[in-house]
Amino acid sequence: MNTINVFINDFPIKVKSNISVLEGCNQNGFEISRFCFHEKLFVAGNCRMCLVEIKGQAKLSASCAVYFTEGMHILTNSSVVKKARESILEFLLVNHPLDCPICDQGGECDLQDQSFFYGSDKSRFFEYKRAVSNKNCGPLVKTIMNRCIQCTRCVRFANDVIGFSSLGTVGRGSQIEISFYIRKLFFSELSGNIIDICPVGALTSKPSAFSTRPWEMKSVRSVDVFDGFGSNIRIDSRNLEILRILPYKNDFINEEWVSDKIRFGFDTLKRQRLNKPYFKSSINFYQLAWTEILNVLSKKLDVLNKKNLPFYLIIGAFCDLKTAFAAKYLLKISANFSSIINFEGYGLTSLDFQHFFCFNNRFQILNDKNLEGCFLVSVDPRKEAPVLNLKLRKQFIKRDFLVANLGSRLNLTFPIFQLTINSFKFLNVIAGKHLFCKFLRKIEKSIAIIGSAFLNVTDENNNRFFLAKFLINSKIINSKFFGLNILSSRATDVAIYNLGLKTKILRKSSKPKFLFVLGDTVFQKDCINTFVCFQGIQGNELLIMSNVVLPSCAFTEKNSLFINIEGRFQNSQKAVSMPKNSKLDFDIILSILNLFDLNLMKKFKKNFLLSQNKIPFYKNNQNPFFSLFSFPVYMTQIKLVNKTFISIFNQNYYQNNLLLKNSITMAKSSKMLLTKSPFV
Ligand code: SF4
Ligand code: FES
């Protein structure tokens, strides 16, 4: 990148040529105050707090809107600049209420910080302050519009980032205010980020209003487990309670956004917690000690084992890598422990190649200037990975980037080509004859994103064959580029596939006699004669059907390791302690192994220590082309493709897993969505 020579406060400095004066100064340690500027938003230049003096220019300039030129001489702290900032702040404080002691932003408010440096201790204004009515933004975002300084960050975030265009400024001059142009529900999967964007306390979190002060909390870094994207988060807690979850900046993954599910849905972790092992006899649950419950479990398994009946293991959506590794050994306690299954509608058995279950191009591909097209198949990125959808939208806004969808109709907050679902169109797409495929063939680089619903097939190999044909005919994979990406919606999937744990769909006809459910997951209600052992954290519909209940801990209560859909290993730190009498998932499985086979236990411990030194377990050094064609093709008739191929993940966004169904905030949001009214 080109650099140029400039002077900042008389220091000769080399800066990049394509950045604003404000960014250049900040990068070189000359902090410039700002309100309306934000790295991820378009520049507005309306607060004037970032004024600097440029030698040779008669007036002060807004540094966020001026770019460096060779030899430029900038003064960031001259007396003229200081005087200008003091005046601007005085104007802002004319109408800003002095309610810092009861404001939730107190302690982390930009206006408070700037007042400390440039504010005055007395006012020259003796009129009434103006009053602005609060707006109803639903159950997640609280507004106190008297505090608004009209920086328009929220307006730019809503319009440019999440695609909600009804928020804007109304009125002029001293009557200007932020409002909705039309009465419309403020809905976005990422709406909570508007709270972080606001530099003052005008927009704050409704669920955690008046609950804490920033200096009372301790923070740890963790990972969002409510989807497979692996957004980095910061968990703020006080004593034993989690008080808020915020995004942790990571430019490679979530930038500085995080979905509403993890930001607000964590209240579920306080509700209906299991704190003792339980055993169900007829319809009643009885509390037992850990040793007693493990004996009950071992006896039951012995009986079933003698009868040679199949056992099944279900791994829930929030299982970490360490627990999944232990679960692999759980399968070895009996030859009857047949396989891992799930009820979430898909299974995967061909795990030889990572390319068939990972987002192979990594999220950075969406910053590639040569990428011109994207084909979505059986996926709704807006619901399954909202931050990924945001990245696609950003590409669409920045330059010519076309997205087409093969599957149910989608609303992705930006225009896409919706391909009609019928077998004729589908055949055309496979053969590369569709108009969009022809377009893809002409461009240099394009990718395909395939959703979990695609895996919901009767014949996995057969569908992979169709996929391969489609990708080659559309030139999404070619000799130079491999553009296949799989988007899994569960945080645990890539980890269990990496460990070689095959998953199958449990057919209704299977009638399992024993199910070990590891963590919260979707569960079929018709397993009436099945003995269910549930290892989880809270009372829910799954618990009612269980015979043995083993209380474990949530992802916020342990140090763990997750793998996101890119195959990236990420640590999650413990934020709070687990309830008394609960145990770590890993320790519970170890106790079960101990009960059955001491040799197996020793082998597990040895292998676990070995693998810890070797993480990542899986080495991605295989030929991606080989992975796609290394399967037997049994059928090539289009009519044999399961119709569910084109379905998508189509559930209530706010409550699409068992944990979130217990969240009060998510229940309110879900009601808002269903009734289309913010008054909940
Ligand atoms: S509500 Fe906050 S972000 Fe929006 S204009 Fe006002 S101060 Fe800026
Ligand atoms: S930050 Fe530059 S004008 Fe507001």
Which helices and strands occur, and which strands form pairs?
Blueprint: E1 3-8, E2 11-16, H1 21-27, E3 51-54, E4 61-62, E5 73-75, H2 79-95, H3 110-118, E6 141-143, H4 153-161, E7 167-170, E8 177-180, H5 193-197, E9 203-205, E10 218-223, E11 232-238, E12 241-247, H6 260-264, E13 278-281, E14 284-287, H7 290-306, E15 311-315, H8 321-330, E16 337-342, E17 371-377, H9 381-384, H10 386-398, E18 402-406, E19 417-419, H11 423-430, H12 435-442, E20 445-451, H13 460-473, E21 484-487, H14 493-498, E22 503-505, E23 514-518, E24 531-536, H15 541-544, E25 548-551, E26 560-563, E27 569-572, H16 585-596, H17 598-614, H18 624-629, H19 664-675
The structure holds iron/sulfur cluster and FE2/S2 (inorganic) cluster.
Description:
This protein has 680 residues and is of the alpha/beta class. Among the domains are: 3-93, Ubiquitin-like (UB roll), CATH 3.10.20; 358-487 and 622-649, Dimethylsulfoxide Reductase, domain 2, CATH 3.40.228. Helices cover 27% and strands 19% of the residues. It has an 8-stranded mixed β-sheet, covered by helices on one side. Strands 2-1-5-3-4 form a 5-stranded mixed β-sheet, with helices on both faces. Strand 24, helix 15 and strand 25 form a beta-alpha-beta unit. Helix 8 packs parallel to helix 16. The two termini are 52 Å apart. Bound molecules: iron/sulfur cluster (SF4) and FE2/S2 (inorganic) cluster (FES). FE2/S2 (inorganic) cluster (FES) binds next to loops.
Sequence stretches where pLDDT stays below 50 over 5 or more residues: 615-647
Cα distance spanning the termini: 52 Å
Q: What name does CATH use for the topology of one domain?
A: Dimethylsulfoxide Reductase, domain 2
Order of strands across the biggest sheet? 14-13-25-24-23-15-16-22
Compute the gyration radius: what is it? 28 Å
Q: Approximately how much beta-strand content do the residues carry?
A: 15-25%
Mean pLDDT level: 85
Number of beta-strand segments: 27
Helix/strand-derived class?
Answer: alpha/beta
Total helix count?
19
CATH architecture of one domain: 3-Layer(aba) Sandwich
Shape: globular
Largest sheet: 8 strands, mixed
* Distinct small molecules bound, one entry per kind: iron/sulfur cluster, FE2/S2 (inorganic) cluster
Helical residue percent band: 25-40%
CATH class of one domain: Alpha Beta
